[in-house]
Amino acid sequence: MIHFSFRYATNPSDVVGYDTQKIRANFLIEKLFTPEDINLIYSMYDRYIVGGIMPVKENLKLETIPYLKSENFLDRRELGIINVGGKGTVSVDGEVFELSKKEALYVGSGAKEVIFSSSEENPALFYINSAPAHSHFPNKKVTKENAEIVHLGEDKYANKRIINKLIVNSVVPTCQLQMGLTELLPGNIWNTMPAHTHNRRMEAYFYFDLEEGQTICHFMGEPQNTRHIFMQNHQAVLSPEWSIHSGAGTSNYSFIWGMAGENLDYSDMDICPPNELR
C-alpha cells in the first residue's frame, strides 16, 4: 500500500519561534519503513520526495500520487534508490536490478513501471529520493566499486568518515538529483563538521546503522541561530537551503544525503567554522 503526506517549506524567521514539537513536525520524518508499504513525503523544498519502501512477501509498485498530477510517478521526475536492508531487486520497465545493502540505483525520468521486491527472508529496505527532471538520463546501478570515495576527518576531532558518492554527476549523469552515503568510523560521532549551507540547493539526511538504544542529535537552523532534533535509527530529516545540516551520535552510524537544486557542483558549499556557530 502507498501512503503519502505533504510538507510546506518554512521561513527561517518563523522557525526561530518553533518549539521542539513544531520543529519535529516540520522537519523530522519519523517512520519510513513499514512492512508491505511505500511511505512518501512530498516536500516543497525543491519539490523533493523522500520515501521508504519495505517489501516482505509482496512486490510493491511505485504508483503516482495526487501531488504529481501525472499518469506515472516518473513522467517528470528522476529517482534515486539506496538499499539499507537485505538483498532485493528493482524492476524498471522489465529490466531487473539486484541491490545488496548500500548499493544504489538511478532511474531516469520517463520510466513507466518500477517494482520493488525482497530476495531473502531479511527484507530489503529501499530508501528513495526523487526530484523533478527536465531531461532523461539512463538507468544505472552504482556499487561502492563504481562510487567516488573520499576519506575525511580526523580521530582527534571525532569526525573520521568515509564518503561514498553514489549518484553524483561524476559517477552517473542526472538532471539535478544527487545522493551518497557516509560511514562514520568506530569512535567517531560528528558528521559534516565543519557545517555548511548551500543556498543553491536543499538536502535530506537519512540515518541508519545506529546501535539500538543510541541516538543522533541532528543540528539545523541558520549558522548564528541553530536548533536541534534528536533522532533514532531509520529516521530522516529535511534540510532547507538556508539551514546547516550536521549531527553527532552517541555511537558511530551511517547516513544517506540527498540533494536537489540549481547545480550539480558537490563542492558548492558555504563553510561555517565550528567556533562561529551559535
From TrEMBL:
<comment type="similarity">
    <text>Belongs to the KduI family.</text>
</comment>
<dbReference type="InterPro" id="IPR027449">
    <property type="entry name" value="KduI_N"/>
</dbReference>
<dbReference type="InterPro" id="IPR021120">
    <property type="entry name" value="KduI/IolB_isomerase"/>
</dbReference>
<comment type="pathway">
    <text>Glycan metabolism; pectin degradation; 2-dehydro-3-deoxy-D-gluconate from pectin: step 4/5.</text>
</comment>
<feature type="binding site">
    <location>
        <position position="196"/>
    </location>
    <ligand>
        <name>Zn(2+)</name>
    </ligand>
</feature>
<dbReference type="Pfam" id="PF04962">
    <property type="entry name" value="KduI"/>
</dbReference>
<protein>
    <recommendedName>
        <fullName>4-deoxy-L-threo-5-hexosulose-uronate ketol-isomerase</fullName>
        <ecNumber>5.3.1.17</ecNumber>
    </recommendedName>
</protein>
<keyword id="KW-0413">Isomerase</keyword>
<dbReference type="GO" id="GO:0008697">
    <property type="term" value="F:4-deoxy-L-threo-5-hexosulose-uronate ketol-isomerase activity"/>
</dbReference>
<dbReference type="InterPro" id="IPR011051">
    <property type="entry name" value="RmlC_Cupin_sf"/>
</dbReference>
<feature type="binding site">
    <location>
        <position position="203"/>
    </location>
    <ligand>
        <name>Zn(2+)</name>
    </ligand>
</feature>
<feature type="binding site">
    <location>
        <position position="198"/>
    </location>
    <ligand>
        <name>Zn(2+)</name>
    </ligand>
</feature>
<dbReference type="InterPro" id="IPR014710">
    <property type="entry name" value="RmlC-like_jellyroll"/>
</dbReference>
<keyword id="KW-0862">Zinc</keyword>
<keyword id="KW-0479">Metal-binding</keyword>
<comment type="function">
    <text>Catalyzes the isomerization of 5-dehydro-4-deoxy-D-glucuronate to 3-deoxy-D-glycero-2,5-hexodiulosonate.</text>
</comment>
<dbReference type="InterPro" id="IPR007045">
    <property type="entry name" value="KduI"/>
</dbReference>
<feature type="binding site">
    <location>
        <position position="245"/>
    </location>
    <ligand>
        <name>Zn(2+)</name>
    </ligand>
</feature>
